[in-house]
Design brief:
alpha/beta, Rossmann fold, four-stranded parallel beta sheet, two-stranded parallel sheet, binds zinc ion
């Protein structure tokens, strides 16, 4: 090798790391994994262009009864942060996450929130499959505001350069949730007071009822999870309650089997109405974002009960 060639090689090796196109490569967006599509949407609102968000559960999947695929382990291991609801919602995922060895930041968005507890009504058939807390916090937008704040904290911890953007995004999203909350309140007020009663496939509208002044008249599966079955006696008691309180609609989530809810509706003459409950739809569906999901459900509930 000639001297000039050696000198060229030496020069290239010395200056290679200083070439601007290498030095100024923008950092890759954070890889955020959410357990379900509702959480994934809120994470996208807060993270904006600096995150890439995936959901473990596909759209229209029941968050209580997820069957993980082997590939889900590698998604849990390779993400920067895993965002979960907590409060017992992800029972089917808990072991998988614990055994994954993932070093991702784990955030339980609903932990520490003012959660509803299993009521006295359910003490008789409390079983170990059910959490003690009601995990369905997303039916109160005020609690989703707290999620957004927790997500901004988590993202800022991972990418301090864009912390200001995450907090600004969370604040802007909060304003949309405040607007949603006021809209829901006004919508519910159009239902005659005696008809503000909900019956659904499982006990999932507690936060919604607490916030907006509705009452739960019962649930087909009497508990916070879809992972159990009602007894014949419980179904009969629900049908009695529906008749006694003149409830006109039974609401069933898009992610669960409607068979039992349909039977209750048929037996009592109530209408069977489908809502989006545990999941968003895909982008081309009617509820691709949390805001669209809530507006769709509230409009459907109000229309059915008025
Ligand atoms: Zn549920």
């Amino acid at each position: 090798m000639k001297i000039s060639a050696l000198r060229f090689l030496f020069t290239a090796l010395v200056f290679l790391p200083l070439i601007p196109s290498f030095a100024e490569e923008p950092p890759a967006p954070l890889e955020i994994l959410a357990t379900n599509t509702i959480i994934a949407d809120v994470a996208r609102q807060v993270g904006g262009e600096y995150v890439r968000v995936e959901s473990l559960l596909a759209p229209d999947t029941d968050p209580h009864s997820f069957q993980p695929a082997p590939s889900d382990v590698s998604r849990i291991v390779s993400c920067d942060a895993l965002l979960m609801n907590g409060l017992g919602l992800e029972q089917s995922l808990a072991t998988l996450i614990a055994n994954s060895g993932s070093r991702a930041v784990m955030v339980e968005l609903s932990a520490g929130l003012p959660a509803r507890r299993l009521g006295r009504d359910y003490d008789g058939h409390h079983d170990h499959d059910h959490g003690d807390f009601d995990p369905h916090v997303w039916f109160d937008p005020n609690l989703v505001m707290l999620w957004a704040g927790k997500i901004a904290d988590a993202l800022a911890g991972l990418d301090s350069l864009h912390a200001g953007v995450f907090y600004d995004n969370a604040e802007r999203y909060r304003a949309q949730l405040v607007e949603l909350d006021a809209w829901i309140r006004a919508q519910v007020e159009t239902i005659p007071p005696g008809r503000r009663k909900l019956v659904s496939d499982h006990d999932q509208f507690g936060y919604f009822c607490d916030r907006y002044g509705l009452e739960s008249a019962g649930a087909v599966i009497p508990g916070f999870s879809t992972l159990s079955e009602p007894s014949a006696r419980e179904l009969a008691a629900l049908e009695d309650a529906i008749r006694a309180q003149k409830v006109t609609a039974v609401f069933v989530g898009n992610t669960v089997s409607p068979v039992l809810a349909k039977r209750v509706a048929d037996d009592t003459g109530a209408r069977l109405i489908t809502l989006y409950t545990g999941s968003l739809t895909s982008a081309d569906g009617a509820a691709p974002t949390y805001l669209a999901f809530m507006r769709h459900d509230v409009a459907t509930i109000v229309d059915a009960l008025k």
